[in-house]
Fold this protein.
Amino acid sequence: MKNDVALTDLVTHSSQVANSGSNETNTASKVPPAPIVPYTVYTQKQKRRFRVLLGLATITSPLTATCYFPLLPLLRAHFETSAQAINLTLTIYIVFQALSPAVFGPLSDSIGRRLVFLVTLTLYAALLVLRALQSFGASAASAISYGVVADICVPGLFLPETARVLVGNGGSDAQRYWWEESWWFLLISWLFGQNSSTKAANQDDRHPGDSVVSSRTSILQQCRFANPLACLRVMFHLDTFFALWMQGSFYMVDYAVVAMMPDLYKDLYHFNELQVGLTYIPRGVGIITGSFCIGKLMDYNYKTVARKIGWNIDEVTGDDLKQFPIERARARGSYFLLIISTAVLVGYGWAVTKHAHLAIVLILQFVQGSMGTCFYNTYNALLVDVFPESPSTAAAAASIIRCTMAAAGIAVLQPLLAALDRGWYLTTLGIWSGGCGALAVLAIERNGMAWRTRRIERKDDRSRASISG
């Protein structure tokens, strides 16, 4: 009530000041207000196209792994080896999956998204036989896709601003390299001899406050900024460490569940390879459902927190998140999701141990897939929120952490299953992920914004010191 009275007094005082100075304003020459420059010039139709293209690009990484899981028992029998040895092939795949975003994420923040997309997806398409290189090419698509979404979506409600020195707000028609042009433009250039590198820069369309590069430097000069170790620094900030933990721990849980599914259905339900593959469908539907629902929930949480603190959401130019408790908005509702995730994982373990009806097991897989996706998307969005200047680098850090934890989890999966049965193993895994996750969410809610503010202040101090020095 007191805050409402104070706010009313402030508005009344502002109106009185405005009225007292109205005569001076009328006599003075009127200065036209600065034009509002939108965050991006892409239309809703173009954004929908981006959504389809990025979805198809991002699916390459999970697709290369998922098509491999149902064949694990067949490969073990064919090569006459142990389950532990076959699981090591998954570990190698995940290791390369972690390395790829560390290279291509910072690179896309430096030279742009299109060329890196072309290189990585070419690796994926051309080297299907070599699984390690296929993983190296496919897993970068997720980190780059987050960068593209951050390029074109308004901060806060969706994802924040990114390395806008490269793209402005999408309206600049600056000189481009050939790979930044559309296929249609390249075809016209080839047919009619037009030069695609002589476009004049349109300074008026550039995002205010951004130092958009007026003349492109050479590609090699830009690549110098693509330090693969840049994403490692992200891991050691307190405001990002716990968000990375949330992603990594549940990614490890997810990989442990999908890696044990083939043997589970083959031993308990006597399924063949085709039937084992079909059991992954409920989990896939759960992932799709969870992705859709958590997107709506994140938008709702952001609006709710903004309404509680009296924050006006700017859906045109985007919100400045430096003074907004984005950590509270993203972590809101996580305790409820943690309870569901833990209960489902424990229930799944004992359902398969007691040889429950197949429908119960598949429903639990559906819920487990949707819960894991909720945590990935929520805390990946938080990472991009707190690192708006280099979102693909932040996403690459997340990929390193989660893939490292997943590789470790797969490496010890078979020994742990031999020591414990499936019920106690998944119970331990569920309690561990849920308990540690609750502590991580508590740290993010209570101290996340303060840690982020201190990190930004230290970075600004270093920048000023380097300029003055």
User: Anything to note?
Assistant: The two ends are 50 Å apart (CA to CA). DSSP finds 22 helices and no strands in the chain. The chain has a mean pLDDT of 74. Residues 87 and 209 are 50 Å apart (CA to CA).
